[in-house]
Structure formats: structure tokens, C-alpha cells
Sequence to fold (162 residues):
Amino acid sequence: MGKDFGVTPPPRGRGWGKGAVLFPGSFDPFTLGHADIVKRALGLFDSVLIAVGYNEQKSSWMPVEERVATIKKLYADEPRVSVESYTGLTADFAVAHGVAVIVRGVRTMADYEYEIQMADVNRQLSGIETILLPASSQLTSLSSSLVRELSRFGHDVSEYLP
Ligand code: ADP
Fold:
């Protein structure tokens, strides 16, 4: 009895409360796939903090302020969702906001390989754990890059956006 498996408990939430989860991404743009992850994360956590990442060195399709404003508008009636932009390491942003868990979506094996590496790095950096949610079957082919590409060629992309 009482065997010690050397498990270090993750840091408890501060500020956002222990039931908060961080959903980081580029969201360039925010698609139905992202909205599906937010909806499902709300079923698992008390609140979701959507963190819109940007890199000053890289140009984006939609300016970060516009991405944040669009997502804020979408969740204007959902007090359990908040939206902020950030630059730099996701792990640092999570710690600064007292969030101990990250949620990400996985569509393909390629996503999975990338996500487990990021999850491991974030856990080593700050003890943050990552929950991976499998994409809903009807949304596995949907990506922001697909929306950008279709839009570039004048295709109506509204069916992919919430
Ligand atoms: P990043 O640029 O950081 O990969 P994205 O904005 O492309 O961020 O995506 C954010 C997260 O949402 C990622 O974990 C990605 O796998 C997930 N995601 C994107 N599209 C979908 C989708 N259709 N279904 C489920 N998860 C998705």
C-alpha cells in the first residue's frame, strides 16, 4: 500500500480556477473544427481560454486583433469562454494565466506526432498537461489552411466557419 510511483501532481489552477483549460492555436481563421473542440472542452472543464498565438516575424492571413475580435463575438453570450492573443511560448502564457491544462485537437497521424512532441515539451517546461481530443469524423479534413486556400481562389468558405 502507499507505493510511490513518483507522480508529480500538475500545478493547480490559479486565477482562472482549477477547472480552466487553455486552447492555444493560430486560428487563422477560426473554423468549425476549432468550435467543435471548444464545445467539447466546455463539457470537460469549467471554462476555456482561447489563446490566439501570433509571431511578429511571420505574416498571417488575418491580423491577430481581427482573429481575437471574431472569436470574442462568437462567444459573446458564453461567459465560460474568454479569448486573448499571445506571443512567445504557450507554456509561459499558460503559467502566467494559472492554467494547468492545454487542450488540442487531432485530425491525423501527422497532427498526432506534432502534438505529442509539443505536449511533452510543455510538460517538461512547466508541468502543464495536454489533453488531445480526436477530431469529429465530419471535420477531420477541415483546416484553417484549406479555408485560406479556397478563399484565395474566390470560393465561398462560409460553410466551414462558425
Ligand atoms: P496551430 O497553428 O497552433 O497548429 P491551429 O489554429 O491550426 O493551430 O489549430 C489549433 C488546434 O486545433 C490544433 O490542435 C489543431 O489540431 C486543432 N484543429 C484544427 N482544425 C481542427 C478540426 N477540424 N478538428 C479538430 N481539431 C482541429
